[in-house]
Amino acid sequence: MLQGQDLSFSVGQRVIFDGINIETYKNELVSIIGPSGVGKSTLLRVLGMFVRPTRGRVLLHGEEVTRPTPRIALVHQSIATFPWMTALDNVKLALQGRGLSKEEMEERARRALEMVGLSGFERFYPKEMSGGMRQRAAIARALAGDPYVLLMDEPFVHLDELTAERLRREIYDILFSEGSTLESVVLVSHNLNEVVELSDRVYAMRGSPARIVGELTIELERPRNQYNPIFSEYVSELYSMLSIGE
Amino acid sequence: MYGGLIIAAAALATFARVLAMMGLSIVTGWLLGYASLRSRGFESAYIPAIAVLESVPVIGFFPLVLIIFVERIGGPLGVEMAADFLVFDAVVWNIWVGIYQAFKTIPRDLEEVADNYGLGFLGKMRKLYVPYSIPRIAANLFPSFADGLFYIMASEVVSVGVHTYEVFGIGTLLTEYVAGGQMAGIYYSLLAIGVGVAGFMTLFRYFARASVAKYGLDTAAQIRRRERPAPRLGSSAWVTLARPMRRLSRYAASAVLASVARPVRSVSGRAPRLARAAGYAIGIAILGYIVYSSYRLIAAVPAATWSELLSDTPAMLYALAVDYGRVAVITGASFAISVLAGYYLATHVRASAIVIPAVQTIAAFPPPAYFPLIYMATYTYMEALPGGIGAEVYVFILGFLSTFYYVFFSFWMGVQSIPVEFWELMDNYRLGFWDRLRRVVLPATLPYLVSGISSTVNSAWGGLMVGEYWPGVVPGRNLEVNVGLMKLLDVYVSQGYLHRAAWASLLFGAVVAVYSLLFTERLMNLSRSRYVVEEGIFAA
Known about the structure:
Chain A is α/β, with parallel strands linked by helices. Chain A is 32% helix and 26% strand.
């Protein structure tokens, strides 16, 4: 699926991360965790080729990715919607340049909005929507482009706790729903509860330069309950991965 | 060296005039800004007055200046005051509004700390208001300096009828050298201006960088991005953010102001009653004076003169319409070039690191100073063009060189303000160049563009004023268009028909002010309400 091979990234003389190998499989949500400033968001951007690595390469279905592509869609931490476009127009942006007719574009954009629960809000401008609705619109835009991989950079961090919890509960089903072409998701987060709730597998990053210090497969039935003792054990295990040697 | 000392002294005198007027604008801006904070009455007169006066291009004040300073006061002092007034008018509005907006956005917390420790007027000014306004002042030094230089070059020598009035300065010296065909003098004068412009721009750049670093609580840099360093920008670009052209820094401030229902701090209830009453009194006194002066002026003009002026009016309005056509062409060309060049530079860090400071320095170099050289090198070709087209091309060149930078820097700064997330989305969905422009870049930069175009329109008049009628642009040659209100103004002044010049400039000022208030401000309000790119990022 998506592979990052021997990825390194430097700013000037400073090596941010080095020798990172990362891989996702079909129908899998993979998380990358690590302390603030370790380079998680940069790694995510390298996986989408928004930022070029100093060394290493990224493969999608075995083919090298050399520049950003709608097949690998990015959902930002700071929820990014164009204020002069309605929710529908924001989503249609992902369908530009594909040779679709106006009707087809409209239809697909509506379907994407429906998938994220924004039916009826097509004509709303971002400023008329709550933060949670805006992030749903951004996710709909990402899904409308028929991506194979979704890169999510702390997508719930700017939402209030209740909204974030509700969206977290729904997101897995939205992402891997029947209408979606999505095959895997890479989520960056420093919220360990969120990571255990959503992930199938987790990579832990730490150090300077940062490296992958651990990998954990989470085998818990969905929907996951954070009051489940096994859930807490996973959280503790991730915590230990990040704090070893500190 | 060709009159080296005189040239150096003249250049210093010219720069000193501009800097002195900028200094005066800053000091008065602090006082008036403070007064408008303390008195809502004063504030409600101060801000609309600035909006109206600023919308009248400097040229609109020209006949008034001649009547008041040159005719009534007269002598070297009168001419000096006339030149200084025009420079003051060119530099002041931006600085005043910048300071006012800085004062209005002082966080309430800091204000409360100042109150807590019992700081009085001087204490607050020294510890809070003045430092807080420094970044905005720094951002306004560049456009103010460029504008001031333009008008000082155009106003150091004034011919009214048979009299020629001049003040000592590099503009006067250049005029003499051009008239005498003294090429060495022209080159050395241009060199002196170039050295001065480059030196002052470097100083301003250093000051902007230092002030943003030390006092920069409310600069454009904060709006630019929040957490991640933008991959498209080098460190030099951060510095250049603090050097927008005329009105630009104010846009950013306006966006901040627009995002809160009322400015951060509220005046009501805290302004002493006495100060408020004084504010109202001052406002009413100024208004009364204007009404009384207008009445006396109208009453003093004989009926025959009124009849003559009214019969001239259709021709004047026609000439104004022709000039608006010229302004439209200049603005359109500036817009097209700015969008293409500005987009390229904003997305190519290395190129912009070299080109932007260079363009900035060139922008401050007043076109009237070097235009005769362009004319000298090209007039044989231009004269071959049929029926006045050559003159039109020259006017276009002069207007373009005088104003291109406004819209260019506006757009460039607007592109800089587009959040990095939007660039990533455009890359992600592989939008082509035109899609990027149409769907994202132009809407995102609209408020900046409106602001830049508005400045371009206002400043183009200065270029037209110089270019439409320039007797002796090089020895033995005149530059002159067939029709144009700026030409009429020039001709009236040079022939001593000051009443006609005053009437023409009154018509001009009224039309331009109405256009500005009705059209530009509405467009600006629309762009602020819908096209604020910062609102596209939700980061609670």
